[in-house]
Amino acid sequence: MKKQFFLFIAASLFSISSLMAQEGRQKLTPEQKTKATMEKLEVFKLDAAAKAKTESIFKEFYTSVQKSMEDMRASGNMDREAAKEKRYELVNLRNGQLKKVFTHEQMRIWVDEIEPTLMPKKPETAPVPNK
After folding, report:
1. Report field, pTM of the whole predicted structure over 0.90
2. Helix, strand, coil tally for the chain in percent (to 5)
């Protein structure tokens, strides 16, 4: 009886952990990404007009990034450098629009503190020892 109970517990834990791992890989929609970004920008205490403009900028940005990736996948051309260049173009366009809404200090905080938290984390690799 004890053996069956422990087997049941082990199977349950395995199932739960695999479900949580799959859940973490779900792609967020542009609306979900915009909402998450706007939550991080609450520290700026933007007025209603600035908040609406900022939300529009981010929704347009995330939609453009998603469309760009979908177009690239559909064409079968998965050139990483081209994707990187396109993303930099879109980021620069977005930041140019944000500069019109944010103050200089808000823009500094955005670039230095908030924006890096929105980027996907790359797995850290062990440094290669010098021989």
Report:
1. no
2. 80, 0, 20
**Residue 15, domain member (yes or no):** no
Identify whether the C-beta of residue 126 lies closer than 8 Å to the C-beta of residue 86.
no
Q: Cβ of 57: how many Cβ atoms within 10 Å? A: 20
For 45: left if phi > 0, alpha if psi spans -120 to 50, otherwise beta; the answer is: left
Neighbours of 69 (CB within 10 A): 15
CA distance 91 to 88: 5
Dihedrals φ, ψ of 14, to 5°? -60, -45
pLDDT, tens only, 19-63 = 555 555 578 899 999 999 999 999 999 999 999 999 999 999 999
Residue-number span of the structural domain to which 112 is assigned:
27-117
Best CA proximity match to 102, nearest among 41, 13, 61: 41
Task: Work out how many domains the chain is built from and give that number.
Answer: 1
DSSP secondary structure string for all residues of 54-68? HHHHHHHHHHHHHHH
Is 94 contained in some domain? Answer: yes
